[in-house]
Design goal:
Aminopeptidase; single chain; GNAT family N-acetyltransferase; eight-stranded mixed β-sheet; 4 helices; acyltransferase; alpha+beta; acyltransferase activity
Length: 177
């Protein structure tokens, strides 16, 4: 099983960062993230960040999760990941950005980089993005990058306060199949 590189464009493997840096970034962004991300609802501490970084290291070692911080110029402003949780030949992409950096194309560039990295993995042929139907900011990314909406009514229990429980699933091929 191949793995993506630890650095690509503005992406830096999350485990390269100090827990204090990650904790400060998330704590500051939490009011913006909490409506959509269940892990951001509770207080986010240095211990929370350290636990996340340990989990990220374990996922990288196992080849199941490749978490990056979006860090233009070396300063983290958000995070994204390729996750092996949608079947043997697919990866799911997740992302979030500090609100002070939205609207500048950072997430779209990060996701485009993740698509390129996924396409370089010899066992991956497609990528999906999933989000709640009410999360219009998350929807803009797959629309902008040419994903196809394959399910607009995925039923699931709401996991965060602003979620409706109706998920949207977007897919794109990264290798002819």
């Amino acid at each position: 099983m191949t793995r993506p590189p630890v650095r690509a464009d503005d992406l830096v493997r999350a485990i390269e960062f100090d827990p204090e840096v990650v904790a400060a970034l998330v704590a500051d962004a939490r009011p913006f993230l909490a409506p959509w991300l269940p892990w951001a609802v509770e207080e986010y501490t240095v211990d929370s960040a350290a636990a996340f970084l340990l989990e990220a290291a374990a996922g990288w070692a196992a080849g199941t999760s490749f978490c990056y911080l979006i860090a233009p110029g070396g300063e983290p402003i958000g995070a994204c990941a390729l996750e092996r949780r949608i079947g043997p030949t697919g990866l799911e992409i997740g992302y979030w950005l500090h609100p002070a950096h939205t609207g500048r194309g950072h997430v779209s560039r990060a996701v485009a980089t993740l698509l390129r990295l996924a396409g370089d993995l010899d066992d991956v042929d497609h990528v999906e993005i999933r989000h709640d139907a009410a999360n219009h900011a998350s929807r803009a990314v797959p629309e902008r990058l040419g994903f196809t909406l394959v399910d607009a009514e995925e039923r699931r229990a709401p996991a965060a306060p602003a979620e409706t429980g109706v998920g949207m699933v977007w897919r794109i091929a990264v290798r002819p199949g």
